[in-house]
């Protein structure tokens, strides 16, 4: 565990910083600049926004997003489990059933509490 | 018999539990409550006497080696082993006798005194708890148990000072007492830690047996810290400020806790640790100097007060100063001797003051009294006996004990301290007789209504007065100085614990203090004539003090006031005579008064009270400032975390 | 493919038996709360009570065992057993005081108990984790549950603010902790506590030390936040004041106990070789924590805030024992925590009993005249205050006594002096409560809102704990010593 082992990391960091600075500076130096009002607008392509953009988003979105995240993670776990299913054997099966059971309890809970109903 | 020592503190504890739990919940009749409280103390006193006689049967050399009575293991952890155990030796049994005996009589007195108070159950419960704690303190066989008693008596004192909590003054006085005592406790605790760190035990036997292995610096530190503890509990400079305020409590409480027992526990503790103190000459010198300084300062403050109980309070502080002076010069048994006689006469003085209050419808200001000695004869005569005792008139208890202290002080080479002690004795005689003269003699200055009600207290109050008065007279005869042809039985009895061989060397000083402090004084003062001479001197000083008081308060105030108004011409003559008095007054009395006022008002109130208050205020102010950092803004909090992390990292990387 | 070969036996389950029981009951209560009719919600609390008792029973099989499970991830040993018992006592008392309180405050959701249980599971994992990651996992499980608990009074602005602040700062501090763990891993190559200890003990070369030291500092910050050391303490008063009182009681004791458990295990088991480095830091933190906590507490008028600052100060006292680091010091950490959990929970329970719906009565002046209105409750409060102030014969006194003697024994005289001075200062504000209770006329009628036998039982248990530990401390101290012996 010598400090010298970290030299490549240091190198990468340096390289990263260099590229960031290089890209900005180079485009500034090399690129031609002719500004007109259309170009200076925040969205020079696309539609002009209608009404205030800082609107509160209904909390329902967050709930749905969070629930999605939970079950998404379930899938993330299920996939590698499926790959080595044979190696793990019965133990792996039981283990995953417990995991799914716990999620199921949560699912029943949110269902019953009405978190899945939009209105 | 000696094994039954644990019963001595047990009875008050039972009394406390009975009165505190059953008595309060079922609202028992106050007769039952007071009977239980007194009976508990009576039994405790009886067992103290029995144990005392059992101890007398043992050969004197073996008296300090009576095995401790261990009830059960209390705190056992690794090398720390502490037990609930009681130690019986001459010192502790003397203390137990004084505490349980005086408490017993004061309990009886309280039955009469607190008769009409609605909180009488609470009162007796606290009082019993106090006695239990006090007995635990004096009988404990280790520092930790002693500390429990030490804290316990402080708690009870706090509860009883603030007994009439519906008024502001008692509640504040209680708080003040508690806070000031905590400062002292801090010293005691640190001393205890040091002892344990160096000796690995807190039991007295182990500590004193192993004390010789300590180096001088450590012992000095330990003893000084213990003394800090003692100054708090025993109201010495600079921590005495709470005691005058403590007079807000019921008078029997002032008598028991703030005169006879609790405040003397510091003296007892130093006497108990005499082996440690003997090894630390510097600490001894500090104790002696502080004791002498307290004796004279407090006495000078007492000169001016008009409140009976405050005069007695300053007097108590001053007498405690004597006791510290005694233990400071190595005369441990003289200190304990004075502790005992003081418990008798000062307890009596307070009870007498309570009886006067009782007669005068609760009045405390002596300017509004006078001429009442015929109306309350028993109170007056017992009060007078106690006053004679405290003034050091030969034949009374205070004479023997005070004189022994002064002689030992002189004999050990502390001649200046002797001078201070003698001066304080003169002041004591003066203010005590001023108190007697103004209160009991002259014209009655009370209102008609009050005068109409003046009556002697009931027997339940006067009998304890008489008993204590007898003790104030005969209590001194257990310690007649050798030179007066007596045998100092008291000293001999304590000798196994406190050391010193009075018979062998004839009141010789303790050689251990000599190297650092004493000089040729001991050598030159060793003659018998010197002792008699000093004795005569101190009696003379006391008589002078009484004479001045007589002159100023019996002769002077009557003449100008009454005659001056009736006979205008005669008044001028009297005025002329009075004019001489004025000069005299301006030269001596005023300056003394001014000194007294200075110490009382400037030093006591101005310097000490204010500095105590300042510390408290500073803390509160600091709290307010630091509180402002707590803005409630999360960004600030996060910044605090980051700064903390940065500081830690920088510190570690340095 | 032996990488995937999972070592597993039934004995492994035994090691985490109480955790499993609590988690199982949490799921059960969660399901029940979804189906139960609202008028029968009180049933949930009793289910929780049963859960705690079953968890206690499950501890019976763990007694005397010393084993590790799940590939050395968690350990059962006297140390973790001690903390598991303590945490279960805390959970038990919390459930007891919550039964009536949650109903009164309208937060009688099943989720309340579920979260308490999950937090307890996290705490136990912190106490029994033998791997830095498990400790972190436990800490997060605990913290997230507590964030929600703090904000469970959704309609109360202060409760929500408390939760939000705690969450933001907690996440911030977790990052420090995680980074500390990462740096420790970077310099030792293992996350296993025993492994770290062995590697550091064998290591003679000094390279890579800066990384390790930085990791050490960040670990101190991370743990210091959870146990509220100055200057990482500033969330404490806001959160303690805003959170529902029962949650505050749970946090003030449970989080602190679990935090110290992990702190002690990591520092005395994995990092003892770095003791010369961290001792001085701890010295400074101890002094700052005691002093700042006590001094600010002096000027508090709200009893919850006062107790919050007092809890900061108590963490400082415990840190004194931590600095001393000798045998007595280590055992007195455990002893102090036990004493602290009884006296603090007790005090909070009294605070709860005196509140009413919408009227918490948390100003100290609200306690005026309590001594006459409710003598028994006032006596209990007085005992807790005396114990917190360190007056014999209470648990608080013995705990302080052991801590300071440990410091003196280890030659940290100044630390002991500062500690004793601090406890003298502290007496003032604890005493103030007593003065209000006994020496002041009541300003308004004090009624016990929703008198609850369960909460009274909690007070009785706490009083018993305070007095028993205070009067007969030796059994508890030797228990604490046996619990920590193997770490040495």
Quick overview:
By secondary structure, chain B is an all-alpha fold. Chain B is built from 27 helices and two strands.
Written account of the structure:
- The complex is a heterotrimer of chains A (119), B (654) and C (488).
- Chain A has 119 residues and is mainly alpha-helical.
- Chain A has a single domain (3-113), classed as Methane Monooxygenase Hydroxylase, Chain G, domain 1 (Up-down Bundle).
- Chain A contains 4 helices and no strands.
- Chain A has helices spanning 7-30, 37-40, 59-83, 85-113.
- In chain A, helix 3 packs antiparallel against helix 4.
- The longest helix of chain A has 29 residues, at 85-113.
- Chain B is mainly alpha-helical and 654 residues long.
- Chain B has helices at residues 7-25, 30-57, 90-113, 120-139, 143-161, 168-199, 204-210, 216-233, 242-245, 251-260, 265-272, 274-278, 281-302, 308-328, 332-359, 377-391, 397-411, 415-440, 448-453, 459-474, 489-498, 502-505, 521-524, 528-555, 558-566, 568-629, 634-653; strands at residues 69-77, 80-86.
- Chain B has a two-stranded antiparallel sheet.
- In chain B, helix 10 (251-260) runs antiparallel to helix 15 (332-359).
- The longest helix of chain B is centred in the last third of the chain and has 62 residues, at 568-629.
- Chain B is globular and about 85 Å long.
- Chain C is an all-alpha fold.
- Chain C has a domain at 274-282 and 298-488.
- Helices cover 76% and strands 1% of the residues of chain C.
- Chain C contains 20 helices and 2 strands.
- Chain C has helices at residues 10-15, 17-35, 42-60, 78-104, 110-128, 132-150, 157-188, 193-202, 209-226, 235-242, 245-270, 275-298, 303-324, 327-353, 370-373, 375-389, 395-409, 413-439, 453-471, 473-485; strands spanning 67-69, 74-76.
- In chain C, helix 7 packs antiparallel against helix 9 (209-226) and helix 16 crosses helix 19.
- Chain C is globular and about 70 Å long.
- Chains in contact: A-C, B-C.
- At the A-C interface, helix 4 of A face helix 2 and helix 7 of C.
């Amino acid at each position: 565990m010598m400090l010298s082992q970290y030299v490549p990391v240091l190198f990468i960091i340096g390289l990263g910083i260099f590229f960031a600075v290089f890209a900005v500076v180079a485009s500034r130096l090399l690129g031609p600049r002719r500004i007109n009002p259309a170009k200076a607008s925040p969205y020079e392509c696309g539609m002009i926004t209608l009404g205030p953009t800082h609107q509160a988003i209904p909390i329902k979105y967050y709930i749905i997003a969070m629930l999605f995240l939970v079950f998404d993670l379930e899938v993330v776990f299920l996939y590698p489990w499926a790959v080595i299913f044979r190696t793990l054997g019965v133990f792996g099966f039981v283990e995953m059933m417990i995991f799914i059971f716990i999620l199921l309890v949560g699912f029943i809970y949110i269902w019953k509490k009405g978190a899945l109903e939009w209105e | 018999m000696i094994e039954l020592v644990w019963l001595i503190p047990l009875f008050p504890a039972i009394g406390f539990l009975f009165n505190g739990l059953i008595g309060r919940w079922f609202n028992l009749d106050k007769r039952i409550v007071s009977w239980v409280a007194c009976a508990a103390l009576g039994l405790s006193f009886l067992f103290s006497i029995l144990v005392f006689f059992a101890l007398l049967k043992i050969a004197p050399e073996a008296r300090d080696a009576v095995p401790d009575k261990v009830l059960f293991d209390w705190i056992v952890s690794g090398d720390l082993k502490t037990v609930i155990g009681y130690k019986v030796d001459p010192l502790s049994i003397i203390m137990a006798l004084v505490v349980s005996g005086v408490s017993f009589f004061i309990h009886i007195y309280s039955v009469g005194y607190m008769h009409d108070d609605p909180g009488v159950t609470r009162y007796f419960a606290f009082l019993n708890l106090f006695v239990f704690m006090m007995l635990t303190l004096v009988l404990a066989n280790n520092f930790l148990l002693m500390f429990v008693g030490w804290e316990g008596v402080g708690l009870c004192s706090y509860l009883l000072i603030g007994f009439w909590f519906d008024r502001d003054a008692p509640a504040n006085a209680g708080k003040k007492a508690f806070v000031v005592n905590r400062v002292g406790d801090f010293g005691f605790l640190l001393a205890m830690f040091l002892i344990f760190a160096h000796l690995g035990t807190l039991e007295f036997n182990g500590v004193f047996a192993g004390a010789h292995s300590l180096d001088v610096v450590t012992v000095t530190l330990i003893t000084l810290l213990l003394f800090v503890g003692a100054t708090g509990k025993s109201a010495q400079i600079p921590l005495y400020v709470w005691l005058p305020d403590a007079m807000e409590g019921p008078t029997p409480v002032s008598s028991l806790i703030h005169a006879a027992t609790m405040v003397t526990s510091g003296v007892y503790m130093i006497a108990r640790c005499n082996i440690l103190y003997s090894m630390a000459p510097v600490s001894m010198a500090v104790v002696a100097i502080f004791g002498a300084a307290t004796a004279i300062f407090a006495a000078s403050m007492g000169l001016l007060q008009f409140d009976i109980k405050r005069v007695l309070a300053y007097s108590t502080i001053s007498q405690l100063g004597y006791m510290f002076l005694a233990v400071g010069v190595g005369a441990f048994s003289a200190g304990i001797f004075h502790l005992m006689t003081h418990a008798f006469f000062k307890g009596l003085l307070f009870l007498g003051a309570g009886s006067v209050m009782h007669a005068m419808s609760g009045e405390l200001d002596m300017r509004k009294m006078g001429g009442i000695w015929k109306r309350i004869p028993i109170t007056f005569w017992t009060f007078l006996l106690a006053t004679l005792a405290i003034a050091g008139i030969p034949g009374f208890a205070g004479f023997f004990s005070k004189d022994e202290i002064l002689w030992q002080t002189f004999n050990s080479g502390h001649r200046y301290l002797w001078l201070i002690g003698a001066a304080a004795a003169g002041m004591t005689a003066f203010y005590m007789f001023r108190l007697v003269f103004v209160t009991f003699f002259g014209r009655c200055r009370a209102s008609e209504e009050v005068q109409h009600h003046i009556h002697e207290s009931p027997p339940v109050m006067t009998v304890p007065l008489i008993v204590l008065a007898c003790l104030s007279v005969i209590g001194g005869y257990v310690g007649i100085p050798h030179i007066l042809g007596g045998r100092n039985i008291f000293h001999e009895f304590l000798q196994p614990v406190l050391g010193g061989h009075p018979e062998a060397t004839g009141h010789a000083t303790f050689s251990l203090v000599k190297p650092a402090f004493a000089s040729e004084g001991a050598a030159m003062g060793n003659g018998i004539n010197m002792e008699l001479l000093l004795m005569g001197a101190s009696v003379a000083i006391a008589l002078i003090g009484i004479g001045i008081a007589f002159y100023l308060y019996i002769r002077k105030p009557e003449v100008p006031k009454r005659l001056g108004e009736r006979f205008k011409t005669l008044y001028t003559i009297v005025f002329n005579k009075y004019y001489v008095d004025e000069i005299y007054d301006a030269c001596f009395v005023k300056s003394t008064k001014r000194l007294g006022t200075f110490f009382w008002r400037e030093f006591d109130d101005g310097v000490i009270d204010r500095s105590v208050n300042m510390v408290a205020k500073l803390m509160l102010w600091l709290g307010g400032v630091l509180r402002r950092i707590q803005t409630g803004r999360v960004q600030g909090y996060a910044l605090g975390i980051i700064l903390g992390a940065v500081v830690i990292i920088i510190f570690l990387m340095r | 493919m032996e990488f995937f070969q999972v070592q597993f036996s039934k004995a492994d389950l035994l090691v985490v038996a109480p955790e499993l029981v609590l988690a199982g009951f949490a799921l059960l209560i969660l399901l029940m709360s979804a189906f139960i009719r609202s008028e029968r919600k009180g049933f949930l609390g009793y289910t929780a009570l049963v859960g705690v008792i079953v968890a206690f029973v499950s501890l019976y099989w763990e007694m005397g065992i010393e084993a590790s499970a799940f590939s050395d991830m968690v350990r059962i040993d006297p140390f973790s057993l001690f903390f598991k018992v303590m945490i279960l006592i805390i959970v038990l008392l919390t459930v007891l005081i919550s039964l009536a309180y949650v109903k009164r405050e309208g937060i009688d959701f099943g989720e309340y108990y579920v979260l308490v249980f999950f937090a307890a599971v996290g705490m136990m994992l912190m106490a029994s984790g033998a791997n830095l990651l498990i400790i972190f996992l436990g800490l997060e499980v605990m913290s997230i549950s507590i964030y929600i608990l703090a904000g469970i009074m959704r309609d109360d602005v202060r409760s929500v603010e408390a939760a939000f602040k705690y969450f933001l700062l907690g996440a911030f501090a977790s990052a420090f902790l995680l980074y500390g763990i990462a740096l420790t891993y970077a310099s030792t190559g293992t996350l296993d506590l025993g492994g770290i200890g062995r590697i550091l003990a064998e290591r003679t070369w000094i390279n890579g030390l800066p990384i390790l030291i930085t990791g050490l500092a960040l670990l101190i910050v991370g743990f210091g936040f959870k146990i509220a050391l100055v200057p990482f303490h500033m969330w404490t008063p806001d959160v303690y004041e805003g959170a529902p009182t029962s949650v505050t009681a749970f946090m003030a004791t449970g989080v602190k106990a679990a935090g110290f458990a992990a702190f002690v295990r990591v520092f005395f088991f994995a990092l003892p070789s770095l003791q010369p480095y961290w001792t001085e830091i701890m010295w400074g933190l101890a002094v700052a924590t005691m002093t700042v906590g006590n001094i600010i507490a002096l000027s508090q008028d709200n009893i919850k805030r006062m107790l919050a600052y007092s809890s900061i100060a108590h963490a400082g006292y415990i840190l004194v024992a931590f600095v001393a680091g000798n045998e007595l010091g280590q055992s007195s950490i455990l002893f102090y925590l036990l004493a602290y959990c009884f006296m603090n929970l007790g005090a909070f329970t009294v605070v709860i009993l005196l509140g009413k719906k919408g009227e918490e009565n948390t100003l100290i002046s609200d306690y005026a005249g309590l001594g006459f209105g409710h003598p028994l409750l006032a006596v209990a409060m007085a005992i807790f205050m005396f114990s917190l102030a360190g007056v014999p014969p209470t648990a608080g006194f013995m705990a302080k006594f052991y801590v300071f003697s440990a410091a003196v024994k280890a030659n940290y005289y100044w630390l002991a002096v500062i500690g004793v001075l601090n406890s003298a200062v502290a007496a003032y504000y604890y005493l103030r409560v007593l003065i209000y209770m006994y020496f002041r006329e009541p300003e308004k009628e004090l009624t016990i809102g929703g008198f609850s036998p369960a909460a009274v039982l909690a007070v009785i248990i706490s009083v018993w704990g305070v007095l028993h530990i205070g009067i007969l401390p030796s059994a508890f101290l030797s228990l604490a010593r046996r619990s920590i012996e193997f770490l040495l």
